[in-house]
Amino acid sequence: MWLALYALIGTSSAAEHRVFRAEMTIESLAEDLGDPTLADVIRKLNDLDPGEQAEVGSIVMLPSLHADHVDQDAAVLSWSGDVEIQTPGSARVPAAVGASLPPGSVVCTLSDGFATIRLAISLKGRFHDDLSLLPDTCLTVTSTFARSGARGSLVSVDSGSISVRAAEDEPGAITVVTPSGVTSGDAGGFRVTIEDNAARTEAVGAPTTVFGAGAEVAVDTGYGSRVRTGEAPSDAVKLLEPGAPASPDNGASLRRADFTWTPVERALGYRIELSAAPDFSDVIRIEDVPAAEWRPERLFLPYRIRGLWWRIASFDRTGFQGAFSEARTLALPGGVGP
């Protein structure tokens, strides 16, 4: 059923999507639209038989009755390393800032690549939803739309790991489809990582919901859930707290690449992340280490950066990664920067 509904999205115009939840019926969706007679329309749009209900966790297309509904294209906000994009009917090309990503576009980062893409943007252009790709990640933009007071984005991730920025003001719904299940949230602030026959979700900035095999699990901020292919999502587990950055001091000059932080009890390891932007929308390096320190012999930085920020997070023994620490900034050494 998921595949059938997913295929419809690329061919449906002026429509919105909804993740079908346990408390929903096709009739209740029609009532939400203000017209109970639309139940038959919804079933036809989603290839459902008369009287049939959708499976929990499936993507249901709804007719848009809003005159100001706008179907949108996503766009590349930033990138570093090797990143490729492919729009429908075109060959793969290197990413470029501002490149348009219409529905059906694919974005892939290679082993040294990072990218952040803009998803749905509010009609007044004041707010938008961002999603970042870590190395070795491939993502397909399925649809983005906006209307008065609402916007939504739907993507699929086949490999790698993505992080959705938490929305601070006007939130937009973001749904991520994986080979194992679905993750959906109304305010961003979550990560999804593809594992062997599973997908791992961590709600680090806002609550989210994970779906799989016709079941759903609510995941509060600070918790995570894993959904294995063909199985219901696991119960939510508490994520580890980050360690506190110790050195270098905030604002210190980057003379030696010696990073340390306080260790976290029960942590199996740590992830340190470096960015050229204070909101970490332009990540340039990540490193997973077993101890509460990272002292690389060499640290290569892109010449174009104007600043450098770093933060750390903890891994538990089952692979769940907690929220990142407060970021610290570093003054760039001479010869680095535009």
Description:
The chain has 338 residues and is mainly β. It has three domains: 2-63, Roll (Membrane-bound Lytic Murein Transglycosylase D, Chain A); 70-238, Jelly Rolls (Sandwich); 245-330, Immunoglobulin-like. 7% of the residues lie in helices and 42% in strands. It is built from three helices and 28 strands. It has helices spanning 2-9, 26-32, 39-45, and strands at 15-19, 59-63, 70-72, 74-80, 83-86, 93-94, 100-101, 106-109, 114-121, 128-133, 137-147, 150-159, 161-164, 173-177, 182-185, 190-195, 198-203, 208-212, 215-219, 223-228, 237-238, 245-247, 259-261, 269-275, 283-289, 293-294, 308-315, 328-330. Strands 3, 5, 6, 8, 11, 12, 14, 15, 18 and 19 form a ten-stranded mixed β-sheet that branches. Strands 7-4-9-10-13-16-17-20-21 form a nine-stranded antiparallel β-sheet, with no helix packed on it. A four-stranded antiparallel β-sheet has the order 25-24-27-28, with no helix packed on it. The longest helix has 8 residues, at 2-9. It is globular, with a radius of gyration of 21 Å. The termini are far apart. Mean pLDDT is 91; it is low at 1-14.
Question: Helices and strands in order, then pairings?
Answer:
Layout: H1 2-9, E1 15-19, H2 26-32, H3 39-45, E2 59-63, E3 70-72, E4 74-80, E5 83-86, E6 93-94, E7 100-101, E8 106-109, E9 114-121, E10 128-133, E11 137-147, E12 150-159, E13 161-164, E14 173-177, E15 182-185, E16 190-195, E17 198-203, E18 208-212, E19 215-219, E20 223-228, E21 237-238, E22 245-247, E23 259-261, E24 269-275, E25 283-289, E26 293-294, E27 308-315, E28 328-330
Parallel strand pairs: 12-14
Antiparallel strand pairs: 1-2, 3-11, 4-7, 4-9, 5-6, 5-8, 8-11, 9-10, 10-13, 11-12, 13-16, 14-15, 15-18, 16-17, 17-20, 18-19, 20-21, 22-23, 23-26, 24-25, 24-27, 27-28
